[in-house]
Amino acid sequence: MISLQRLTKHFGSQVAVDALSLDIPAGQIVGLLGPNGAGKSTTLKMLTGLLVPTSGTATICGHDLLKDPMEVKRCVGFVPDSGAVFESLTGLEYLEMVAALYGIPAEAARERIRQFIAFFDLSFDTLTDKLLGAYSKGMRRKVVITAALLHNPPVVFFDEPLDGLDANAAVGFKALIQTLAREGKAIVYSSHILDVVERVCDRVLIIDKGRLQVDGSPAELVALHGARSLEQLFTSLTGGDDLERKAEDFAKTFRP
Ligand SMILES: Nc1ncnc2c1ncn2[C@@H]1O[C@H](COP(=O)(O)OP(=O)(O)OP(=O)(O)O)[C@@H](O)[C@H]1O
Asked: Which keywords annotate this record (predicted)?
């Protein structure tokens, strides 16, 4: 359903994403992990048409990213880590605008929006009366997730989706993506919350400096590398050795 073929992005002389090649079938939840600056967001931005690759390409639902960008956009939903929205619209205005852009008829859009606000426990009054600029971070996140799923895309990319969600909403969200995957959607989930990734994802990709380091199920990878957990595997692969000693040395600098 998603196929990357040597997907690459340079920013000047810096290689942010370095010849990534992989395939993701329908119904799979894939965790995209990597340290800060590894190239995760850049990869997702290329796959959603927000950044043009320097070389390589990808196909999504059979559509080539470079040759067929509009078809690709129809097939994907994206929750970016920025959570940026039009702050001077109400939540409902924003969602209706997104629905109109995807060509969803107004009545069907209202019904879908109603289902999402019930799921996320948002009040309809908040959605109609308050401008998005006045929403809390978590409320805004719920609206952005709703917007990404409104057109029922077969492929969904989430960049740190739990950021700002309270514990109840996070539990609901995890159940939601597992249900979406069972219905056949391919889901790519970029996050730093490793224990959630370990529990929710069928497959984990760890990238570092734009290159794919490992690819497999969490249990497989942990066993293969003789690690105690995904977190330990992650720190050993991505240069996090000696973190406790470094923390102690750093804390010492605050001593009088
Ligand atoms: N628009 C840009 N212009 C120049 N450099 C960029 C741009 N966007 C990203 N980069 C660089 O590309 C590299 C990869 O960044 P990216 O945002 O993809 O990392 P990330 O894995 O998502 O990191 P984080 O976990 O911190 O969000 C970084 O070194 C970053 O500074």
From this structure: ATP-binding, Nodulation, Nucleotide-binding, Transport
Ranges of each domain in the chain: 2-252
Q: Cβ(32)–Cβ(188) under 8 Å?
A: yes
Classify the phi-psi angles of 49: left when phi > 0, otherwise alpha if psi is within -120 to 50, otherwise beta: left
Atom 9, ligand 1: residue with shortest CA distance: 42
Q: How far is the CA of 55 from the centre of ligand 1 (A)?
A: 17
Which CATH number is correct for 2-252, 1.10.287.130, 3.40.47.10, 2.60.40.1940, 3.40.50.300? Answer: 3.40.50.300
The response to whether residue 13 sits with its C-beta less than 6 Å from ligand 1 reads no
pLDDT in tens, 184-227: 999 999 988 888 888 889 999 999 999 999 999 999 999 988 88
User: Which ipTM value was assigned to this complex?
Assistant: 0.98
Distance 39 CA to ligand 1 centre (A): 6
Atom of ligand 1 nearest to the CA of 207: 21
Q: Which of 220, 227, 173 is nearest to 200 (CA)?
A: 173
In short, whether 41's Cβ falls inside 6 Å of ligand 1 is: yes
Say how many Å lie between the CA of residue 16 and the centre of ligand 1: 7
**Per-residue pLDDT reduced to its tens digit, 134-180:** 988 888 888 999 999 999 999 999 998 888 788 888 888 888 899 99
